[in-house]
UniProtKB/TrEMBL annotation:
The keyword Nucleotidyltransferase applies. This is mannose-1-phosphate guanylyltransferase. One of its GO terms (molecular function) is mannose-1-phosphate guanylyltransferase (GTP) activity. It comes from Phoenix dactylifera (Date palm). Pathway: Nucleotide-sugar biosynthesis; GDP-alpha-D-mannose biosynthesis; GDP-alpha-D-mannose from alpha-D-mannose 1-phosphate (GTP route): step 1/1. It comes from the Eukaryota.
Length: 358
């Protein structure tokens, strides 16, 4: 089987992290976001993954070359010369995705984190005999799918409705038959607004309710929420991967190469990456600490993302969705209340209200 991951553009909502790497390579729970998806696809027999991308394809490919060999899966970029929306990239990759075998292929939004129940999706898709299956989830701020609960057949597809029409939202995970390609032209076009409504009108679109958690982690607040949901899921499925000890409170993921000092309190909902040094007396909660970070004595970090190779000084307090880009150095006894700090900066005075530090 094959898969197309919609990578898209600049990742502006996750700046300043995406000033250093393309968004799918930003670490989530100690590995690049996109790797969670590629590993799950490999587990159900996908042998080839295409990345629909219009920004820095060479950076992506160079990075993923290592994983191609480790996972034994072929990864190729399908580069857009102009943004093609969510359906245009399928037309661009048509020759790669449609090989005459008749096998359906996966399409994923690269921002989506979940338990990726792909084997259940394949079974459901083959059983209903329709043309396309979309995974759906409970509502929030996204497009709504109106479906027959008994069969999963989609009645209609409403993008971001103003009034209540149903309580299932599109989760950004699809399994499509090759015949769907005949409905897509090579131009900027939306799969949600133009393609799915037509398949639904022909009664060939089905929806499967996503078991487990789901989050679009393309912006900081949702990224932190997604980490909590991911660690909750890990607790149920692979609790041995989580840290234990008197200094751990709740679900915490610590890379084996990270060093943690005495008298710390870490958790809940924390990920500490490779090569990190957490000195004594540090307090961490609801945060991600990316690889190579040093957190000095008695610092306190909550609801924040600390980018690669940064340092947080002694007795500093970092909170309220502070995001430090790569190689940011926060001085001793500095307070950050929602500061968004671009890479390679030194912060010597407190950030008292949420602002961007250039």
């Amino acid at each position: 089987m094959k898969a197309l991951i919609l990578v898209g553009g600049f990742g502006t909502r996750l700046r300043p992290l995406t000033l250093s790497v393309p968004k799918p390579l930003v670490d989530f729970a100690n590995k690049p976001m996109i790797l969670h998806q590629i590993e799950a696809l490999k587990d159900v027999g996908v042998t080839e993954v295409f990345l629909a991308i219009n920004y820095q394809p060479e950076v992506m490919l160079n990075f993923l070359k290592d994983f191609e060999d480790k996972l034994g899966i072929k990864i190729t970029c399908s580069q857009e010369t102009e943004p093609l929306g969510t359906a245009g990239p399928l037309a661009l990759a048509r020759d790669n995705l449609v090989d005459g075998s008749g096998e359906p292929f996966f399409v994923l939004n690269s921002d989506v984190i979940s338990e990726y129940p792909f084997s259940e999706l394949i079974k459901f898709h083959k059983a209903h005999g329709g043309e396309a299956t979309i995974m759906v989830n409970e509502p929030s701020k996204y497009g709504v799918v109106v479906m027959k609960e008994e069969t999963g057949k989609v009645d209609r597809f409403v993008e971001k409705p103003k009034i209540f029409v149903g309580n299932k939202i599109n989760a950004g995970i699809y399994l499509l038959n090759p015949s769907v390609m005949d409905r897509i032209e090579l131009r900027p076009t939306s799969i949600e607004k133009e393609v799915f409504p037509r398949i639904a009108a022909d009664e060939k679109l089905y929806a499967m309710v996503l078991p487990g958690f789901w989050m679009d982690i393309g912006q900081p607040r949702d990224y932190i929420t997604g980490l909590r949901l991911y660690l909750d899921s890990l607790r149920k499925k692979s609790p041995y991967k989580l840290a234990v000890g008197p200094h751990i409170a709740g679900n915490v993921l610590v890379h084996e190469s990270a060093v943690i000092g005495e008298g710390c309190l870490i958790g809940p909902d924390v990920a500490i990456g490779p090569g990190c040094v957490v000195e004594s007396g540090v307090r961490l909660s609801r945060c991600t600490v990316m690889h190579g970070v040093r957190i000095k004595k008695h610092a306190c970090i909550s609801s924040s993302i600390i980018g690669w190779h940064s340092t947080v000084g002694r007795w500093s307090r970092v909170e309220n969705m502070t995001i430090l880009g790569e190689d940011v150095h926060v001085g001793d006894e500095v307070y950050s209340n929602g500061g968004v700090v671009l890479p390679h900066k030194e912060i010597k005075s407190s950030i008292l209200k949420p602002e961007i530090v250039m």
